[in-house]
């Protein structure tokens, strides 16, 4: 894995991938690398938590291995499972060949070649790697406890094969949209960073970096409007991802700047709930667009 010697180098490498970080996040990422500690990223959807893992993987020249959490996820989906169809085929082939030794057949059936490595096991076996455990808040308490144990030792015991341990721990990024509180035990194991919505200047810089081909005026106006939308009482305030989506949508329609009509017509690119779209349609976009960004 590419060696990084300090927070400034972390920032430079991440920015080279197009991911802009502030000082606090650069320090957190450096400590995660130096201390082999997971980094727990919490905040609203669309503020760059998942993108951080992808940027780290690119900056470190390491593969990104992603585990998408959901309600009911268990170890067989996250860690490993046995390839039962292949085991059955092997058993039938052995029987056709006249092999009747039960002990031999059992040992062959539970060979490593029949083990399906899910994301967690792949991360332990891949050096170097970046493991993204996305939306851990969607998993249940039992899976959270299982994950805590695995991240404490970076090892797993498979009854048929023994203990498999990472030669060097993967870089681990956990994300949470805070749909529920994650237990303190897991948070204590991690370095913590809260992802807030960026200010105007940083958000505009992110949009310009991600969409270098759009007009500067368009990027500036969309960022201004998104900042204003976040001040409304919305069900789901737009994140940076939605700012980028809105800019792309307007650019795809051939716009080099925003007017009130085009803003209303493309609200579905930035607002994702009916109540929010209705509130957005009631805003005076012409007035919002008349606000000079120089005062920001």
Assembly category: single chain
Give the rounded overall mean pLDDT.
91
The largest sheet has its strands arranged as 2-5-8-1-9
State the share of residues found in helices, binned by percent. Answer: 40-55%
In percent, how much strand structure appears in the residues?
Answer: 5-15%
Order of helices and strands: HHEHEHEHHEHEHEEEHEHHHHHH
Class per helix and strand makeup: alpha/beta
Shape: elongated
Alpha-carbon distance between the two ends: 40 Å
Number of DSSP helical runs: 15
Instruction: Give a quick account of the main beta sheet: strands, pairing sense, barrel closure.
Output: 5 strands, parallel
Radius of gyration: 24 Å
Structure description:
It contains 15 helices and nine strands. A hairpin with a 3-residue loop joins β6 and β7. The protein is an alpha/beta fold and 296 residues long. Mean pLDDT is 91; it is low at 292-296. The chain has a five-stranded parallel β-sheet, with helices on both faces. A two-stranded antiparallel sheet has the order 3-4. Strands 6-7 form a two-stranded antiparallel ribbon. It is elongated.
List keywords for this structure.
two-stranded antiparallel ribbon, five-stranded parallel β-sheet, disordered C terminus
List the helices and strands and how they pair.
Blueprint: H1 7-16, H2 23-35, E1 39-43, H3 49-60, E2 64-68, H4 75-78, E3 80-82, H5 84-96, H6 102-109, E4 115-117, H7 119-125, E5 130-134, H8 141-153, E6 155-158, E7 162-165, E8 171-176, H9 184-189, E9 191-195, H10 200-210, H11 216-229, H12 240-252, H13 260-265, H14 274-281, H15 285-289
Parallel strand pairs: 1-8, 1-9, 2-5, 5-8
Antiparallel strand pairs: 3-4, 6-7
Helix pairs in contact: 1-2, 1-3, 10-11, 10-12, 11-12
